[in-house]
Amino acid sequence: MSNGIIIIPTYNEIENIERLVRNIFSLQRKFHILVVDDNSPDGTAEMVTSLQTEFFGSLFLEKRAEKLGLGTAYIHGFKWALKRNYEYIIEMDADFSHNPNDLIRLYNTCARDGADIAIGSRYVTGVNVVNWPMSRVLLSWLASKYVRLVTGMSIHDTTAGFVCYKRKVLEEINLDKIHFVGYAFQIEMKFKAYLLNFKIKEIPVIFTDRTKGVSKMSGGIISEAVFGVINMKFKSLFNKISK
């Protein structure tokens, strides 16, 4: 039984999922994997099902009825993992933008170095992004600067989706009160952990844009992040005042 599990949300990742699963299971540290698939029409879930025979007891699949958003997929996965005996719960993308070889570094930052949350950070040592157009790099970098300014968090990569949580963090955060469903979900989770005074540590990683499949980024996701952060900060101040 592994004490660490990787949660991977998928929608139309047939070109990536088998290679990613095999990469993770080839690591020296043994992790379990939970794929949360939003009823991909391209057969992603069926591919995972076919791999489960080979990786019996280590590869799990939760298939949802429709595409419901990144945040709700992770919440679904978190709740699934908390019902089991996992102490370290890691989220990552399915498209190889997160290097599977960095999983052990994330895990060790929590398991050995005492962090409650380890963030695979694109910006803690500069800008470590490969294959993004400059406009997108600038947008992402400025978004993290904006979130730091509004929230007061000292995290350089506030929108990072490559994160290891200790079990106790997800147990203390009220997952039913997480409101964002797009990439702003990543900001909200970090902000809730920050307000609860958990120890958060960033480790540098190189983020490589997907080479297969289609990006899920949209204007609505960016709008949610920009305007949602202000609302989130305002509510946190109101809650302090009302206590």
UniProtKB/TrEMBL annotation:
Signal peptide: none annotated. Pfam families: Glycos_transf_2 (PF00535). Keywords: Glycosyltransferase, Transferase. The keyword Glycosyltransferase applies. Residues 6-173 form the Glycosyltransferase 2-like domain. The keyword Magnesium does not apply. InterPro entries: DPM1-like (IPR039528), Glyco_trans_2-like (IPR001173), Nucleotide-diphossugar_trans (IPR029044). Belongs to the glycosyltransferase 2 family. PANTHER family: DOLICHOL-PHOSPHATE MANNOSYLTRANSFERASE SUBUNIT 1. This is Polyprenol monophosphomannose synthase. It comes from Gillisia lutea. The lineage of its organism: Bacteria, Pseudomonadati, Bacteroidota, Flavobacteriia, Flavobacteriales.
